[in-house]
Design brief:
This protein is an alpha/beta fold and 466 residues long. The chain folds into 2 domains: 168 residues, 3-Layer(aba) Sandwich (Rossmann fold), CATH 3.40.50; 170 residues, Rossmann fold. The protein is built from 15 helices and 10 strands. The strands form 2 sheets. The protein has a 5-stranded mixed beta sheet, sandwiched between helices. Strands 3-2-4-5-6 form a 5-stranded parallel beta sheet, with helices on both faces. Helix 10 packs parallel to helix 13. The protein is globular and about 60 Å long.
């Protein structure tokens, strides 16, 4: 694995804090958090992600080979059962994978929008389809509605439960019961691994491996990063400790937003994955900072004006990649009208992207905003595995230092209960009543906007405008 570099020289912005004060204030808490993460048995609820780098990929590879026998794979899942897959595929596959000759094609059915659900099916219905359901409980409404719909469509076209894989809890839940009473395949989603920390277990690895991603290399990178951040006890040399302390400091100084801005189209879903990991792990008891997704260089043209001249309420992390792969080089100008662009002759587009990353970072720092710079050598399986594990560790470390449980999500569970009640699930009748009470409050003061075209001379009195 190549190195990942963390640069902290501009990490304070206009803050009066410095590394001496930060170390004095947070070093003991960071070391305690490190000891807690490392010392808690990995079988403890929420802590299983620490053991994932050591897992064998034999079953993952065997199941991936089975999936390669299909024309298309549909995976149904949401949140941690979807974002990790999207992140891995975008980072490590061709940007338009489904438009290549490669098989199987891959579709992620996450948001339960009927247009998307049907659009996916229209693209796969004429071939042999594998259905992968990912849910620890098998009761998540968004996942199960789509699972049931796709399964029905598959059965109607002559396929069977033998074409289904469920990844679920080892012992309990609806999916586990379905696996026992049907001919579908089943893999374990470790009971001690939460959804948003599950990308390095079968939930994230199986379909990635089926598409050609090296699962073993992902785990090697994750293992190398685990060994580094979990064993390094020198605050100054451990980037996870330093970043956790910085997030704490900037939150206390009323910078409640954490902007993650990678400079690569292949990392857009990494920012999405990070947003769920950070928000769901830390946003509790009135604490936490709000993750903001940005993408370079697109958001130079939509967000950087706010970042440099808006309120000083954000802490920035920019991620740059040294080697973007095969370069696209601008040819020499051959048209008179284009002569002003001759400075671009021979320039690489990837090289320009890296220069833009540096320029944006410099502009943000010049404006007095705090920023950390992360640089990757290249984007391959080991690097992605290492970066994923780093952010999981950073999140858990920060949560412990904040005094919250980084592995539960009580606010999410309330919304699930409300949905169960509204959809008529037994035992959730009071939740349905409660939604009705709260929604009555929401709609108590409403205004309707008329958007149909009005005829000239109608009751508005506006008439024709010439």
């Amino acid at each position: 694995m190549d190195k990942i570099s963390f640069s902290f020289g501009a990490a304070f912005g206009r803050s009066a804090a410095d590394w001496c004060s930060l170390r004095a204030k947070y070093e003991a808490a960071a070391l305690e958090a490190q000891s807690w993460i490392n010392g808690t048995p990995f079988g403890t609820e929420g802590h299983g992600w620490m053991a994932l780098p050591d897992c064998s990929v034999a079953q993952v590879d065997e199941t991936a080979e089975w999936l390669r026998g299909y024309d298309s794979v549909i995976q149904v899942g949401i949140g941690g059962s979807a974002l990790g897959n999207l992140m891995l595929n975008q980072a490590l596959l061709d940007g338009f994978y489904n438009e290549t000759e490669a098989k199987p094609k891959f579709y992620l059915a996450d948001n339960p929008d009927p247009d998307k659900t049907r659009s996916i099916w229209e693209r796969v219905k004429d071939g042999k389809v594998a259905l992968v359901g990912v849910s620890k409980s098998g009761s998540t409404a968004e996942t199960m509605t789509q699972f049931l719909w796709y399964r029905d469509e598959m059965l109607k076209k002559g396929q069977s439960d033998r074409d289904i894989l469920v990844i679920t809890d080892p012992e309990k839940g609806i999916f586990r019961a379905f696996a026992k009473d049907s001919e579908c395949r089943v893999m374990e989603l470790p009971a001690s691994v939460g959804g948003r920390y599950s990308v390095l277990c079968p939930a994230g690895l199986v379909t990635a491996a089926a598409l050609g991603i090296d699962a073993a290399a992902l785990l090697r990178g994750a293992g190398a990063m685990r060994d580094f951040v979990s064993k390094e006890t020198d605050f100054a040399k451990n980037p996870a400790m330093r970043l956790a302390a910085l997030h704490m400091t900037h939150a206390e100084e009323r910078r409640p937003m954490s902007v993650l801005m990678p400079y690569s189209s292949k990392m857009a879903y990494f920012a999405e994955w990070y947003a769920q990991l950070w928000a769901e792990s830390l946003g509790k008891e009135g604490k936490g900072t709000t993750p903001v997704r940005a993408l370079g260089s697109i958001d130079q043209h939509s967000q950087v004006q706010l970042y440099t001249e808006g309120p000083d309420d954000k802490f920035f992390t920019l991620i740059s990649i040294k080697d973007h792969g095969p370069e696209a080089v601008v040819p020499n100008i051959d048209h008179e009208a284009l002569k002003p662009l001759e400075y671009l002759n021979g320039q690489g587009i990837g090289a320009m992207l890296n220069l833009e990353a540096k320029s944006t970072a410099a502009a943000i720092v010049k404006a007095g905003r705090p920023l950390v710079w992360i640089e990757l050598e290249k984007l391959d399986e080991e690097t992605v595995g290492a970066l994923v594990f780093f952010y999981e560790y950073l999140t858990a470390l920060t949560g412990r230092m904040m005094g919250v449980n980084p592995f539960d999500q009580p606010g999410v569970e309330q919304g699930k209960k409300y949905t169960y009640g509204l959809m008529g699930r037994s035992g959730y009748e009071k939740d349905a009543e409660e939604v009705g009470e709260w929604f009555a409050k929401i709609t108590a003061d409403s205004v309707e906007a008329v958007y149909k075209e009005l005829r000239a001379g109608d009751e508005t009195g506006i008439g024709d405008r010439k």
